[in-house]
Amino acid sequence: MPPHPSPPPLRARLGELWHRWGGKVMRYATGSVVAAICSETVFVIMYGGLNTTTTWATIVGWLAGALPNYWLNRTWTWRLRGRPRFVDEVLPYVAIIVVTLVTAVVATDQVDNWLAGHSLSHGVNVVLVAATFLGVYGVMFLLRFFLLDRLFHRIDREPASPVDEITPARR
């Protein structure tokens, strides 16, 4: 009886994983950092500086990061070109990231309400609520990566619909 082939060494398996996912994960992480900086900055300005509610600060902060994040993910992380298809691409993307928005609204509101019962300075409240806002994005990072990878991978493999195709001119 022939011996069973031994599994590849850990180093080889890690090399295969890096080859398959490494560059994409690094590009996604970099784009996420850019989006997080945009979101967090706007959130802190609105909540800490302008004294808006956590809901408004979260929504506007989310928008400030969602727009560059979409563009970076589409063009840099998943390297898609051309005009985005609204129904096949934009709507599913929005559905995926709205989960983060709703989670952030609920979490920041809960922390803000809990802090209202304590005698902490405005600065400490801002830091704690802003950390909650950023924490939601950190927790959702991997989930969103895998959902977006499935979305953009599917789009990259689908032929364009007849509406999206440009037909050559007839002679």
Structure, described:
By secondary structure, the protein is mostly helical. It contains four helices and no strands. It has helices at residues 10-49, 54-77, 86-116, 122-157. Helix 2 (54-77) packs antiparallel against helix 3 (86-116). The longest helix has 40 residues, at 10-49. The model is unreliable at 160-171 (pLDDT under 50).
Short description:
This protein is mostly helical and 171 residues long. The protein has helices at 10-49, 54-77, 86-116, 122-157. Residues 160-171 have low confidence and may be disordered.
Strand proportion: under 5%
Q: Based on DSSP secondary structure assignment, what is the total number of beta strands?
A: 0
Tell me the overall shape.
globular
Largest sheet: none
Which secondary structure elements does this structure contain, and how are they paired or packed?
Layout: H1 10-49, H2 54-77, H3 86-116, H4 122-157
Helix pairs in contact: 1-2, 1-4, 2-3, 2-4, 3-4
What key phrases describe this protein's structure?
mainly alpha; globular; 0% strand; 171 residues; 77% helix
